[in-house]
Structures are given as C-alpha cells and as structure tokens.
Specification:
Elements: H1 3-8, E1 15-18, H2 21-25, E2 29-34, E3 37-38, E4 42-44, E5 50-51, H3 53-65, E6 68-73, H4 79-84, E7 90-96, H5 99-102, E8 105-107, E9 116-121, E10 138-142, H6 146-154, E11 159-163, H7 166-174, E12 180-184, H8 185-192, E13 200-205, H9 210-213, E14 217-222, H10 226-242, H11 244-252
Parallel strand pairs: 2-6, 2-7, 10-11, 10-12
Antiparallel strand pairs: 1-6, 3-4, 4-5, 7-14, 8-14, 9-12, 9-13
Helix pairs in contact: 3-10, 3-11
C-alpha cells in the first residue's frame, strides 16, 4: 500500500486539483489535507492521482458546497500540525474523532465508523483477537493512531511495535518479524485480498473503546473555523440524503461503512 509511494508523497510535491463544475470554480476555495497512504480510504497512486473512499467523499462534499478544492498529501504524524500551520483547511484522512484530538482541532460529525481488528500470518498459533492471546507477542501498529493507542492501552502484555506507515508493519508481518498487527478492519480486509496480503488472515475485530476510538471518522478543521465545519456538516447530511454517499459506499464496500 505505501512504502515507495509514501516516500514520494510530501505536502509540497503532491497537490491535486478538483474542479467540480463551472459553479464550483466560482465558489469558495478549500485546501484538503490527506495522507495518501491508507487504502482503500486514501491512496497516492503511481501515476500521481489520489484515490479512495475519503477522496471520493471529499469531492462529493466539495461539489455539494460548490467549493473549489485542492488536495495536498501530508505524512500522518505531521498532519494536525500542518492543519494548524494553515498548510490546508481541512483533513479528510480517516481521522477518528477523539477527545485528545479535540484539544487541537475541531471536527465535523462522523462520515464513517468501523472497528479495529487484528491480523496474523496464516500459520499463526494465535487463535483469538484478545489481549490474553496476544500476551508476549510482537504486535505492530502505525504510530500516532487510535490503533496504536488501543494496543498500548489494552495489549499491555504484548510487545507493541510502532511504525511510521502501515506498509511497514505489513512488511514485517509478512516477513515474520512481528506476530500480529492492529488496524481498521476495512483496511486490513482489503489488504488481505491483495497479493501482498496473501500471507495473512483476519483474526477478528476488537471491542471499541469509546475514549480511544471515538465516535467515528470525522473531518478536522482548525479550532474556531465554525463556518467551514458547519458547511461540511450540512454537505455530509446532504450526500447522505440524496444518495451520493450510498453510491460511493457501494463502490468500495459491500456493507454500510457509516455504522450505527
């Protein structure tokens, strides 16, 4: 999913422009930050295009708001500081709405919600996605994510290894350098369908911790940017009502990713 592409993706080098019709070209300009390294939600392809559920949702929201939107890729661990520094106006990158992040940014309402899960090699002796079953095992996670926070809080008897990107923990899992990995169930399920993911299997989902996992993925904006946040909230509500959300959902998933 990421290593070679991720290294090529920087905030200064990858800017992508969306013009959603003539009306949008005359509207408000919004710069959207995303990671570009988290398929199927957002990914920077080899040809320089951004794809994924997050990207299509963002485009639909921009169209609904009649806004002219540009997309900028940014490493995950610097994405909130970059928003605060005004490198972009909003983050659409599968960012979970948590109390910790609310100290730095404001969020829209959720636009999807899926649980964390555990993957292991196909020949793994681990049979359950539980803290007890993972005790003493090396567990990989992408750093600075709700999944790494979850692992550190709930898998205290595991050796939690943190990685800059998901590609790196996946490579170590495939090569036997870690025993298991934690991430979003959709991200892991989609990876398992690929050639690189043929090494492994989904062990199961984990109970959501409301404090750590939050209430779902939302769009982050700078503190006090209520005007943009409310426009985005209205646009989310509109695409949920007019069928555009369902159309994008069905493009990527055979289930309702919005959640209960």
């Amino acid at each position: 999913m990421r290593i070679s592409r991720r290294l090529a993706a920087t905030a200064s080098a990858a800017v992508f422009v969306l013009m959603a019709g003539v009306a949008m070209a005359e509207g408000e300009k919004v710069v959207i930050g995303t990671e570009g390294a988290y398929p199927p939600f957002n990914n920077l392809e080899s040809d320089g295009t951004l794809t994924g559920f997050d990207i299509d949702i963002a485009k639909a929201l921009c169209e609904e708001m009649k806004a002219e939107c540009t997309f900028v890729t940014q490493d995950w661990d610097g994405i909130i500081p970059a928003l605060i520094a005004k490198k972009f106006d909003a983050i659409v990158a599968s960012m979970s709405i948590t109390e910790e992040r609310k100290q730095q940014v404001d969020f829209t309402n959720k636009y999807y919600n899926t649980p964390p899960a555990i993957v292991v090699p196909k020949d793994s002796p681990i049979t359950e996605a539980t803290a007890a079953a993972l005790s003493g095992k090396a567990l990989g996670a992408q750093g600075s994510t709700t999944h790494s926070n979850y692992a550190e809080a709930h898998m205290k008897d595991s050796e939690v290894k943190l990685y800059p990107t998901a590609d790196e923990y996946k490579l170590d899992l495939a090569n036997g350098r870690i025993d298991a990995a934690i991430d979003d169930v959709v991200v892991l399920s989609e990876w398992l369908k690929t050639e690189d993911g043929a090494c492994c299997k989904l062990l199961g989902t984990l109970p959501i911790d409301p404090v750590i996992n939050g209430e779902g993925a939302g769009i982050a904006v700078r503190k006090g940017d209520d005007a943009l946040r409310e426009k985005l909230n209205k646009a989310i509500e509109a695409i949920r009502a007019n069928g555009k959300y369902k159309q994008i959902n069905e493009k990527y998933f055979p289930f309702d990713v919005y959640g209960s």
